[in-house]
Amino acid sequence: MSGQTDDHAALAFRVRGVRHSFGQTEALRGIDLDVGRGEVLAVTGPSGSGKSTLLHVMAGVFPPDEGSIEYEGADITGLDEAERSDLRLRSFGFVFQFGQLLSDLSAIDNVTIPLLLAGWRRKSALVKARDALEELDVADHRDKRPGELSGGQAQRVAVARALVTEPAALFADEPTGSLDTLAAEKTMDSLLDLVRSRGTTMVIVTHDPRIASYADREAIVRDGAVSFGGGVGNAEGVGNVG
After folding, report:
1. For position 46, what pLDDT does the model report?
2. What's the first-to-final CA gap in the chain, in angstroms?
3. What does the domain layout of the chain look like in residue ranges?
4. CB 3.0-4.6 Å disulfide test: which of 116, 150, 189, 239 passes with 34?
5. Domain named ABC transporter: which ranges (predicted)?
6. β-strand 40-44 against 201-205: which pairing, if any?
7. Consecutive H or E run containing 74
């Protein structure tokens, strides 16, 4: 397979022959993909192309119908739902288009949720959550509920929640899709600063070329298959398909 790497130690994700269908509709059609450790990969393509399905299969939200997915050298394809949930809790962070913050909780309480689920004591979780909000420049809004925040503020709270456990990999599905240009740029600048400083692997689904330009490399999904744009990853031979 042209352009793929045999250096598994350099990979966060290794996807081979992945297929996934919804009923009679085949969303993914035998995808091969490598994502390097610390790489920021943009997954682009038209609506209905399969890009969000690819993200969810890689993240273990649901297993592929065929093929295999390795994360950090371990095959995660055969994990059951409880094992996939544990992997997501321990190792992955998620940011979605509309943030999906809990409306009845304050910003800081929303950010503590992953920590509490991971077994942190509430007092320690609150300190960690406050620090995460500070990094995203929204600590002054920590006691506000989502409905009291602007769209950009709410999305930065969602980013803080995704990163508060310092996950090794972050999955972002249209994270700025509901924001205006200025708020989108501020959110992405903050997000990328944190991801790159920590060496976090990020897979970001977007339809916006401006957002894709933040990534090291672009994987273009059309009709359930992948092709590649330019970028750092291609020069290093990581993640191309044959």
Report:
1. 87
2. 4
3. 39-60+84-229
4. 239
5. 13-241
6. parallel
7. strand 74-75
Fold (topology level) of 39-60+84-229: Rossmann fold (3.40.50)
Taking alpha carbons only, the member of 67, 78, 23 closest to residue 225 is 67
Decide: helix, strand or coil at residue 105.
coil
Give the whole-angstrom CA distance, residue 110 versus residue 104.
9
Q: Element (H or E) spanning 77, and its range?
A: none
Place of tokens 């979605």: 96
Quote the pLDDT of residue 96: 87
Is residue 229's pLDDT more than 80?
no
218 Cβ contact partners less than 8 Å away, ≥ 6 residues apart: 41, 42, 43, 44, 212, 228, 229, 230, 231
- For residue range 58-84, what is the model confidence (pLDDT) as tens digits? 999 989 999 999 999 999 998 999 999
pLDDT tens per residue across span 142-168: 999 999 999 999 999 999 999 999 999
- Check whether 99 has a pLDDT greater than 80: no
* Main-chain dihedrals φ then ψ at residue 16, nearest 5 degrees: -135, 125
CB 205 within 8 A of CB 51: yes
CA distance 203 to 98: 17
The pLDDT of residue 236: 37
